[in-house]
């Protein structure tokens, strides 16, 4: 059946119900018929790993690490699960996810609902990843010390994954984005540096950033990620801005906007970071990818790896096949012999 037909049915359901149905279907009923093959041109070595293709599942889709193995089987190059907090929590009250169908966008104010680190950890331990797994961590809403929460998650997860993503950019946990201020960021990153040292952890650590920042924030963040030896950046999370040009009547719902309406802003931020840090600190580009062209734009802007969430909701999980095919074609059309060679060519 065509995904457009399935999607017109899904669009009639409550978005959270549709999402949990999709997770249950993937978890219990999906088995791939053919192993997915990757074009050689899409291979890239980043964060100490060889990625067979650069396109991953963004955080928030598989919050409790239930289907990442299925996403690898579908052909995603990697998957980031979470955000996971130390204790389980319910998140904000419902409704809290809005599909802006005319805009192909989503607004969410979920507030990190998740089963907590003990449960998610034991799930990951019993289902060791046969692909590249990232774990996205964050603090509980009612935490006494947010930094301690990040450290606790780091300790528990660092040896179960290919990288840890420190999420400081969700707009739905009050004041979380204050970690974009220098003093708070330094405190957080120095505690993470300490725990990495104590545990002698070699697991790469990346930081996920908000799109709602200004140029001086970018300079300051670059300085600090280099000072504290971070291994990468995820650019970007959802936006609390960019509502002017939206069509859907739910456009002013509180929360983070995702999908094509944030693509240009996210690309611009990638370009600005890339200009400063070049290839020293790799960028995972996310925000509005739903086709080979939008994936290619982010690579040219400076991203070495990519992620998507909203595109996967609107076009279905099999969209990965089309994106990979189109991306490989675009690279060849423009004379690149590898993905790596196209990274950042538009950043000047
Ligand atoms: C419903 C929903 C839930 C999300 N939950 C998380 C989350 O828990 N942690 C996180 O770092 N990002 C979360 N995100 C943000 C995505 O990972 C991504 O950064 C953002 O949606 C932009 O990408 P997209 O346009 O491809 O969706 C969420 C996004 C959506 C739409």
Under CATH, the homologous superfamily reads Aldolase class I
Radius of gyration: 19 Å
Helix content: 25-40%
The number of helical runs is 12
Assembly classification: single chain
In CATH, the architecture is Alpha-Beta Barrel
SSE pattern: HHEEEHEEEHEHEHEHEEHEHEHHH
% residues in beta strands: 15-25%
pLDDT averaged residue by residue = 93
The CATH class is identified as: Alpha Beta
Question: Which structural category fits the helices and strands?
Answer: alpha/beta
Net shape = globular
**Count of individual beta strands:** 13
Instruction: Catalogue the ligands.
Output: flavin mononucleotide
- Could you name the ranges where pLDDT drops below 50 across 5 or more consecutive residues? none
Whole-number count of domains:
1
Give the distance, in angstroms, between the N- and C-terminal Cα atoms.
44 Å
Main β-sheet, spatial strand arrangement: 3-4-7-8-9-10-12-13
Structural commentary:
- The protein is α/β, with parallel strands linked by helices.
- It has a single domain (49-339), classed as TIM Barrel (Alpha-Beta Barrel).
- 38% of the residues lie in helices and 16% in strands.
- It is built from twelve helices and 13 strands.
- It has helices spanning 3-10, 15-29, 68-74, 117-126, 146-157, 182-199, 215-227, 263-277, 292-301, 310-315, 319-333, 339-342; strands at residues 44-46, 49-51, 55-57, 78-84, 97-100, 105-108, 132-137, 163-167, 205-209, 232-235, 256-258, 283-286, 305-308.
- The chain has an eight-stranded parallel barrel, surrounded by five helices. The chain has a three-stranded antiparallel β-sheet with strand order 5-6-11. A two-stranded antiparallel sheet has the order 1-2.
- α3 (68-74) links the parallel β3 (55-57) and β4 (78-84).
- α6 (182-199) runs parallel beside α7 and α9 crosses α11 (319-333).
- It starts with a helix and ends in a 6-residue tail after the last helix.
- The model has no long low-confidence stretch (mean pLDDT 93).
- The site of flavin mononucleotide has 28 residues, from β4, β6 and α10.
């Amino acid at each position: 059946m065509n995904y457009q037909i399935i999607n017109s049915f899904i669009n009639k359901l409550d978005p959270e119900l549709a999402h949990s149905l999709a997770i249950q279907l993937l978890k219990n009923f999906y088995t791939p018929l053919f192993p997915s093959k990757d074009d050689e041109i899409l291979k890239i070595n980043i964060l100490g790993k060889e990625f067979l293709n650069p396109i991953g599942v963004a955080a928030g889709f598989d919050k409790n690490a239930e289907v990442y193995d299925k996403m690898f089987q579908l052909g995603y190059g990697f998957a980031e699960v979470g955000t996971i907090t130390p204790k389980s929590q319910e998140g904000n009250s419902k409704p809290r996810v809005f599909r802006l169908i005319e805009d192909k966008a989503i607004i969410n104010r979920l507030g990190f609902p998740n089963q907590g680190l003990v449960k998610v950890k034991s799930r990951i331990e019993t289902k060791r990843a046969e692909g590249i797994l990232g774990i996205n961590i964050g603090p509980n809403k009612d935490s006494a010390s947010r930094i301690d929460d990040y450290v606790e998650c780091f300790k528990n997860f660092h040896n179960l994954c290919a990288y840890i993503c420190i999420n400081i950019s969700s707009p739905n946990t009050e004041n979380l984005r204050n970690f974009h201020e220098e003093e708070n960021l330094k405190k957080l990153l120095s505690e993470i540096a300490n725990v990495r040292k104590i545990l002698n952890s070699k697991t790469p650590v990346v930081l996920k950033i908000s799109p709602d920042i200004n140029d001086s924030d970018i300079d300051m963040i670059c300085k600090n990620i280099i000072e504290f030896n971070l291994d990468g950046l995820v650019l970007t999370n959802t936006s609390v801005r960019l509502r002017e040009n939206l069509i859907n009547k739910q456009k002013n719902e509180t929360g983070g906007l995702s999908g094509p309406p944030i693509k240009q802003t996210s690309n611009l931020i990638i370009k600005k970071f890339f200009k400063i840090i070049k290839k020293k600190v790799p960028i995972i580009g996310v925000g509005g990818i739903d086709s080979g062209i939008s994936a290619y734009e982010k690579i040219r802007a400076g991203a070495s790896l990519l992620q998507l969430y909203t595109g996967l909701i609107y076009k279905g999980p099999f969209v990965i096949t089309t994106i990979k095919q189109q991306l490989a074609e675009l690279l060849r059309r423009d004379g690149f012999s590898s993905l790596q060679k196209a990274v950042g060519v538009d950043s000047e």
